[in-house]
Design brief:
223 residues, alpha/beta, 8 helices, binds D-xylitol-5-phosphate, binds zinc ion
Length: 223
Amino acid sequence: MTQLRDINIAPSILSADFANLGRDVQTVLDAGARVIHVDVMDGHFVPNITIGPLVVKALEPLVHGAGALFDVHLMIEHPERYVEDFAAAGADVIVVHQEACVHLHRVLAQIREAGAAAGVSLNPGTPVATLGDVRDSCDLVLIMSVNPGFGGQSFIPGSLEKVARAREFLPEHVALEVDGGVTELNVRELVDAGANLLVAGSSVFGGPDVESRFQALQQAATA
Ligand code: DX5
Ligand code: ZN
């Protein structure tokens, strides 16, 4: 079974072909993907609106059938209202934004109680030190390397150093994920800086031959 601390490229289905979503997810699973990243947006916390628990539920048999993990990134206000729904739909990891949670510690406990691993995400403008009082209450930290809301944006350069600082700051068992602008050009240095989960949307789904695009990234990450 895939472990959260393994080094993995996590294809983000935000950049997949929504008219052929099941096909695209199956393609990356067949190529070896063991973490599938889902971007949930509400039009409030971020400007964009995407998908909800129904889509996670529909894809769940494919993802779990391949022994992969479902990584659900909630870019929404009041994420506590949806934790149980996403857990029931099949989310293995539920990531909430620090900036969206007045009671972050409580939401992380709620996620674990619902049976999922608990993740906290930080926007580019939110310092790592803000995790100080929850680093023992979470299983994963996600560093946003773009401002959340859209795929296909450029990696914010200072994020590499932020990843290194986060790794130093976090207990060894906490997984470290990076999201936004991950490509074949920066994936290796991100792993060297301590990231182990690398979300990749447009660099996987943004062109022909999704399978070899995924495999090239996975190879660069694990080589
Ligand atoms: C952005 C999302 C990302 C997005 C990444 O708000 O959280 O997961 O899909 O897309 P790329 O890899 O294209 O930057
Ligand atoms: Zn994401």
